[in-house]
Write a structure and sequence with these properties.
The chain has a single domain, classed as 3-Layer(aba) Sandwich (Rossmann fold). It is 41% helix and 18% strand. The protein contains eleven helices and 15 strands. The chain has a seven-stranded parallel beta sheet with strand order 3-2-1-4-5-6-10, sandwiched between helices. Strands 7, 9, 11 and 13 form a four-stranded mixed beta sheet that branches. The termini are far apart. 48% of the residues are buried.
Length: 340
C-alpha cells in the first residue's frame, strides 16, 4: 500500500511523512525540482517530480497509490500574490481531487486550516460549524483556503471519499523554512520589542496535528471537517511562554493596533512594488496577529480521539531542533540567530 503526500517538504509534511515511514508504510512525496529535501531520507520514502498546479504530474504521482494526504499550500500572510495563492490553494486542490477520483484512491485527507473556519472570542471559540467570517481580513491565503474546501466538498458530492482537517497555529520540529517557528526565533533572539495589545489563537504541536491527520484517514467521517487545535492563548501569553523556555526576557510592551497600522501600510506598499521582498511585518500579519481567532477541537477529541500535548514541549523541542540544525546558537548572553 502506497500513500501519496503533497506538501511533503513543509513542516506538517515532513513530520507526517516521517511518521508514516517509521510505521512501515511506503510513502511517495510529490516534489518540485527546486524542493529542499530535509529529513526525508528514511527507508520507504520515494519521490515523484511534479507540482499540484500541473494535473498530469499529479495524476502520474497518484497512480498506484491507495491513500492521499494533500498538504501542499501557498502559505503567506502577504496581502499580495492573489494569483499564486489561487493557483496553488484552489487550482492545486482541484487537480488533486480530480486525480483522486480518476485513480480511484480509497481516501483523501485534505489539510486545510482554521483560516477556512470562522473565528470567535476565547469564551466562545469557533467550531466546525461557525460561518467563515474573514472577508474583512482581505487575505488571499484565508480566502483561498476557504475556497479550496468548497472544491473538496464538490468532489465529495461526485463520489470522492475525502475528509478535511483544519489545523490551528502549528509549531514543532522540522520547520525547515521557518514559518510559524519564525516567531519563536524572533522571541528567543530578543528581536521582538513588543507584542500585540490584543489578539490570539490556538497553538498546536505539529505531532498532534499529524496524529489527527492519521486518525482522520483511518476513522474520520466522509465529507466532514475536523479542527486540530491545541491550547487557546493570547499572542502575549504565547510569547511569554516562549521567552520563559528560552530563558530570555519576554516582550513586555503591549502595542496598540493603531500605533503600527501606518508603518504596516508602508511596508505592505513597498512589498507590493517589490514582491520578492516580503517583510515579517505587513498588513496581513498585523490583521492576523490582532484577531481573536480562538477555536475548539472538541469534535476531533471526541471522534478522532485527538490527544492534547503540552505546548511547552513543542516550544522546547522547536528551540532544540533550531539549535541542532544551525538556525539558533546558544551563547552566554542568550540566543543568536545563525541565519538571516
Amino acid at each position: 500500500m502506497t500513500t501519496l503526500v503533497t506538501g511533503g517538504t513543509g513542516l506538517v509534511g515532513i513530520n507526517l511523512v516521517r511518521a508514516l515511514a517509521e510505521n512501515g508504510e511506503i510513502v511517495r512525496i510529490l516534489v518540485r525540482p527546486s524542493s529542499l529535501l530535509v529529513g526525508l531520507d528514511l527507508p520507504g520514502i520515494e519521490s515523484a517530480t511534479g507540482d499540484v498546479t500541473d494535473l498530469e504530474s499529479v495524476r502520474r504521482a497518484m497512480t498506484g497509490c491507495t491513500r492521499v494526504y494533500h498538504a501542499a499550500a501557498w502559505v503567506s500572510m502577504s496581502p499580495w500574490r492573489t494569483d499564486l495563492a489561487r493557483a496553488v490553494n484552489v487550482g492545486g486542490t482541484a487537480n488533486v481531487c480530480r486525480a483522486a477520483l480518476e485513480t480511484r484512491v480509497e481516501r483523501l485527507v485534505h489539510v486545510s486550516s482554521i483560516a477556512a473556519v470562522g473565528h470567535g472570542p476565547i469564551d466562545q471559540p469557533a467550531d466546525e460549524n461557525t460561518p467563515w467570517n474573514f472577508a474583512a481580513m482581505r487575505s488571499p491565503y484565508y480566502a483561498t483556503k476557504h475556497d479550496a474546501e468548497t472544491i473538496v466538498r464538490q468532489h465529495v458530492d461526485r463520489g470522492l471519499d475525502a475528509v478535511i482537517v483544519n489545523p490551528a497555529y502549528i509549531i514543532g520540529p522540522w520547520d525547515v523554512r521557518p514559518g510559524s517557528g519564525r516567531s519563536i526565533i524572533l522571541c528567543a533572539t530578543k528581536r521582538l520589542h513588543g507584542c500585540p495589545a490584543r489578539g490570539g489563537t490556538s497553538v498546536v504541536d505539529v505531532r498532534e496535528v499529524v496524529a489527527g491527520m492519521r486518525a482522520a484517514m483511518d476513522r474520520g467521517r466522509r465529507g466532514e471537517r475536523y479542527i486540530l487545535a491545541g491550547e487557546n492563548m493570547t499572542c502575549r501569553e504565547f510569547l511569554t511562554r516562549v521567552a520563559r523556555i528560552a530563558g530570555v526576557e519576554p516582550p513586555r510592551r503591549a502595542i496598540p493596533f493603531g500605533l503600527i497600522y501606518l508603518p504596516a501600510i508602508i511596508a505592505t506598499g513597498i512589498h507590493g512594488l517589490n514582491p520578492r521582498w516580503c517583510p515579517d511585518f505587513n498588513l496581513g500579519t498585523l490583521r492576523a496577529a490582532y484577531c481573536d481567532h480562538y477555536v475548539t477541537a472538541r469534535k476531533a477529541r471526541q471522534e478522532l480521539k485527538l490527544q492534547s500535548l503540552p505546548i511547552e514541549h513543542a516550544i522546547a523541542d522547536t528551540l532544540q531542533w533550531f539549535e541542532n540544525h544551525g538556525y539558533l546558537t546558544r551563547t552566554p548572553n542568550g540566543w543568536r540567530s545563525s541565519r538571516p
